[in-house]
Specification:
The structure is a single chain. By secondary structure, the chain is of the alpha/beta class. It has a single domain, classed as NAD(P)-binding Rossmann-like Domain (Rossmann fold), CATH 3.40.50.720. 38% of the residues lie in helices and 18% in strands. Helix 7 links the parallel strand 5 and strand 6. The protein is globular.
Length: 347
């Protein structure tokens, strides 16, 4: 069978066995996935193919060769997978039917938020509009847009963050290119739902990781793991005071499918494992103790923090009650997230 690692196979079985995903609703359907070579997109594509149910997956990709390498196993096994080649802002609509859409294509590198803010905004707005126009033309059954917890700006921890909780966000800060464009993309989803009846739903995901994280991923969770696996001291470029929750990739996929198939049109859902809520420093200490052959030390060096595009210090305690009312539950805690990610060979 095509999963290359036992952890990946176990994740696929975990996803397919999730009771909140009505797989029968996807039988004989075509699902278009944008951002299909990203972490969540790739895991979603594999899960849809693993589930069978005569599901056809259409993956929007910019690099055919990369996609062919990434999905070599499913392709070799004769999976119902085809590639739609193009950029999310300008891709040609497919000729055949599209029943469901998961829109995950976006620029996510923190450094790009400050060095390429125009491209960050254009990709979010033009890409989302293009995908919504496809959904409108195809009269899809549902569309799920993968947004971010960053739409909530920088809460101070004085209250839990529900889908209706918003604090100030300064649009004149260059780094706001990412959260502001995510907010506007969400507004487009709501507008298309209200004006054109496009069945769009939004997921506001916390930071997500698991098997498949790229070797050069610059996000803090990956940097921590690389240092520990290589036996190097963990160096934090902030004080590590920011607090947030995290999410395992397989749990993100089940959340996406739950909202895609059970969510309400024009609604947003927070997605996180509430039990993982901790500071970056606390997470660094956990990784230093538990990941790698020997424990390592944690050091703080903040001299060049501003150039890295990090979010301001915040306390993002996401409330996931709305999603849990659909029956979704996370299954993997923070320590196991790291163990499963590194066991599978990443980062």
């Amino acid at each position: 069978m095509w999963p290359e690692h036992d952890v990946v196979r176990d994740d696929l079985e975990r996803i397919v066995g999730t009771p909140t995903v009505p797989w029968e609703a996807l039988r004989g359907r075509t699902v278009l996935v944008t951002g299909a070579t990203g972490l969540i997109g790739a895991a979603l594509v594999r899960a849809l193919l693993w589930a069978g149910e005569d599901i056809t997956v259409l993956a929007l990709v910019r690099d055919r060769d990369k996609a062919a390498r990434l999905f070599a196993g499913p392709l070799a096994a004769g999976a119902r997978l085809s590639f739609l080649h193009g950029d999310v802002e300008t891709f040609e609509f497919p000729d055949g039917p599209v029943d469901h859409v998961v829109h995950g294509a976006s620029i996510t590198a923190s450094s790009d938020f400050v060095t390429r803010p125009v491209e960050v905004i254009r990709t979010a707005l033009r890409g989302t509009e293009r995908v919504l126009e496809l959904a409108r033309a195809a009269q899809v059954r549902s569309l799920a847009y993968l947004s971010s917890m960053e739409v909530y700006a920088a809460p101070d921890g004085s209250r839990r963050i529900t889908e209706a909780t918003f604090d100030g966000l300064d649009p004149m800060l260059v780094r706001s290119s990412y959260p502001e464009s995510k907010r506007m993309a969400e507004a487009l989803c709501a507008a298309y739902a209200a004006q054109y009846g496009v069945p769009a739903r939004v997921l506001r995901l916390t930071q997500t990781f698991g098997p498949g994280v790229a070797l050069d991923d610059a996000r803090v969770f990956a940097q921590l793991a690389r240092s520990a696996v290589e036996g190097r001291d963990i160096v934090l470029h902030t004080t590590g005071a920011t607090r947030r929750s995290y999410l395992y990739t397989a749990d993100a996929v089940t959340a996406v499918l739950t909202v895609l198939l059970r969510g309400s049109d024009g609604e947003a859902y927070n997605v996180a494992n509430e039990a993982t809520y901790c500071s970056i420093r606390e997470m660094a200490d956990l990784v230093a103790r538990t990941v790698g052959a020997v424990p390592v030390e944690v050091r703080v060096e903040t001299q060049d923090a501003a150039s890295r595009g990090y979010a301001p210090t915040l306390s993002m305690d996401l409330d996931t009650a709305k999603l849990q009312r659909l029956g979704w539950r996370p299954t993997v805690g923070l320590e196991d997230m790291y163990r499963r990610m590194t066991a599978a060979g990443t980062p």
